[in-house]
């Protein structure tokens, strides 16, 4: 491939004389090393191959007829081979962002969002989990932990059958972790944004759930490097349930963690999480992170 | 068309052994050392790692694949020291690995799966289709390349596993129990493939089938309780056994002579 690019820049080609001599065949005074160099060049250079084929037709009609005979003999057999199946070839591009096992999980995450949205809208009318002033929306309550589930699914030993192979490849590690996390966030965050906009809770900004959401995702990854991403996700969800969901539902109003005053804390957690992930990036390329 | 010989192909190697371990210890779980003080040097060729179940073969192969980090000692692969928290990207590009439990995506076709693995192994994008086709042809699956993995038999799935391991033309190829699930004819074909690959690659095959070793390996590594018991050619292994040892073939007698010595009575199985 390198040689092709070189040829494209027009660095060096075989001279017409050498190609003509080569086309005429043996006994034309080409030294063995010249032949070798020319053949190595021809393998990589399209321009010179074209020149050679032109030279063969003019200087060596015998060879040209021989090639023609072989070609006409082969043609019917080539036509007889089965055509490649027409089925759309799954491109590497999609699987490089999402493993196939992640798809059902992401579907679940999005449907949970929709369900929370539905309950919020219904709750407005019936006073259940009321999202009026002082109340708290379910979307807001669930938003921070939803991406965590997606991230866990992309690294779980139980959910990804090829986890050991994945851990052993050069692309494993921080690079792949970030790629898969980014794809989870790219799907979940817009769904949450739409849900947040639709519920339209007064006084709730996107930052109020987006920041905890990112903070939890980075914490999961940071912890995951130590105890395995799945365990980390379970721990993070448990902490979230104990510290935020239970008190909120009990008191039917947003706890400190979800109010604007909590934002600097979430910012700090996010920074810490990202720092740990970067510092321990080698941990994602060994089996331990897949537990 | 085969690619032209590149400068990288004919460059002298800066290392004496593809794999070199000194005092290697690898921990499994909290306490147990599955590989416990191993000294091993492996060069080009096919090396059969033999040993009873639980000897630490899989742990050793995983450490060589750099998915487990050594707890103590040094491990050098292709001249690069493995350990610490590095990602070893450049090194991993030159390693092929088939784990014992080969997991795959059922909905993928053979070609898609091998392509995906080639992408994960950072094979240059333009080379992927050609490399995939070569790998699939080498394991004899060219006619089934566009079938979904779930439609394949166990032996064929194993061969896909071998195809993904060789798709990046590795310098070190690690195969953990590759012959499990292959029928006798496939095993014969597989041994031929091993011999082909062993001409210019350091192939490490873990197995518990003595006859695989006899047929395909240039070198036997006998491994028990995390330690090296014997390293030599299959003939030397056969020579270690006498008529008084259990076994049906000279190799099996050599195997039992070396492993079932009186100080190793860890149970009759």
UniProtKB/TrEMBL annotation, chain A:
<feature type="transmembrane region" description="Helical">
    <location>
        <begin position="138"/>
        <end position="156"/>
    </location>
</feature>
<keyword id="KW-1133">Transmembrane helix</keyword>
<keyword id="KW-0812">Transmembrane</keyword>
<feature type="transmembrane region" description="Helical">
    <location>
        <begin position="206"/>
        <end position="226"/>
    </location>
</feature>
<feature type="transmembrane region" description="Helical">
    <location>
        <begin position="263"/>
        <end position="283"/>
    </location>
</feature>
<feature type="transmembrane region" description="Helical">
    <location>
        <begin position="233"/>
        <end position="251"/>
    </location>
</feature>
<protein>
    <recommendedName>
        <fullName>Zinc-finger domain-containing protein</fullName>
    </recommendedName>
</protein>
<feature type="transmembrane region" description="Helical">
    <location>
        <begin position="97"/>
        <end position="118"/>
    </location>
</feature>
<feature type="transmembrane region" description="Helical">
    <location>
        <begin position="177"/>
        <end position="200"/>
    </location>
</feature>
<keyword id="KW-0472">Membrane</keyword>
Automatic annotation (TrEMBL), chain B:
<keyword id="KW-0067">ATP-binding</keyword>
<keyword id="KW-0813">Transport</keyword>
<dbReference type="InterPro" id="IPR003439">
    <property type="entry name" value="ABC_transporter-like_ATP-bd"/>
</dbReference>
<comment type="similarity">
    <text>Belongs to the ABC transporter superfamily.</text>
</comment>
<dbReference type="GO" id="GO:0005524">
    <property type="term" value="F:ATP binding"/>
</dbReference>
<dbReference type="Pfam" id="PF00005">
    <property type="entry name" value="ABC_tran"/>
</dbReference>
<dbReference type="InterPro" id="IPR027417">
    <property type="entry name" value="P-loop_NTPase"/>
</dbReference>
<feature type="domain" description="ABC transporter">
    <location>
        <begin position="19"/>
        <end position="250"/>
    </location>
</feature>
<dbReference type="InterPro" id="IPR003593">
    <property type="entry name" value="AAA+_ATPase"/>
</dbReference>
<protein>
    <submittedName>
        <fullName>ABC-2 type transport system ATP-binding protein</fullName>
    </submittedName>
</protein>
<keyword id="KW-0547">Nucleotide-binding</keyword>
